[in-house]
Amino acid sequence: MKKVVLLFILIPFLGFSQITDKLDYISPFNEGYSAVQKGDQWAFINHKGDIVINFRDDLVLTETDNKKYPIFINKRCLISEIKDGISYFGFIDTSGKTVIKPRFLNATNFYTEFAIVIKLYKEPLGENDVLKKHVVRYETTEVLINKSGVIKHSLNEPKGLLLLKEYLSKPPKIYSKLIEKNLYSIVGKDNKLMIKIIK
Fold first, then answer.
1. What is the pTM of this model?
2. Does residue 117 contact residue 109 with C-beta atoms inside 8 Å?
3. Where do the domains of the chain lie?
């Protein structure tokens, strides 16, 4: 009888203990979370060592101090999803919920209230009577989004794009950069740098 009582006393304590072992990497803490790697998957732990976001393979790695790992910045972490051979980027919050679905061709972290993303626009041009297909033009532009994914500002003029996985084997480069609060460096039509003030 004593063994049974002891077992019932220990089970609740054992149930709350979460041991994370056989890890390949443990990142420094940032905003209260550390990324831990097991194989090709990453999870997040809190200061108690509890897994708060379980292992998954869609977290995007950010280079920090010559190491690459997922990171929360302003309570958002980048994720990616491959559709038809092309990577699209979005964000999760600190609960692991997708708050911005992967729909951008590239994205930066939220270093301020905004992230810089490459937005894809699809413009129908008509029908090809010979091939019996829709004719579509794709354009991209770099824009600022808020933490809900709403586009707040456009940073450059739209550019034409071939939306084929052969041309997008890796995400297109983001040229705009945050250089100071409300100040962004952007590339103009003549490939010269410009300063844009965003309030």
1. 0.82
2. no
3. 22-72, 108-199
- Position 65, amino acid: D
- Residue 117, classified by CB atoms within 10 Å of its CB into exposed (0-12), middle (13-18) or buried (19+), is buried
The span from the CA of 71 to the CA of 29, in Å, is: 9
* 52 DSSP assignment: E
* Backbone torsions φ then ψ of 14, nearest 5 degrees: -70, -35
Q: How confident is the model over 114-129, as pLDDT tens digits? A: 999 999 887 776 676 6
CA dihedral of residues 132, 133, 135, 138 (deg, nearest 10): -170
64: Cβ contacts below 8 Å, ≥ 6 apart: 27, 28, 30, 71
d(CA 199, CA 91): 23
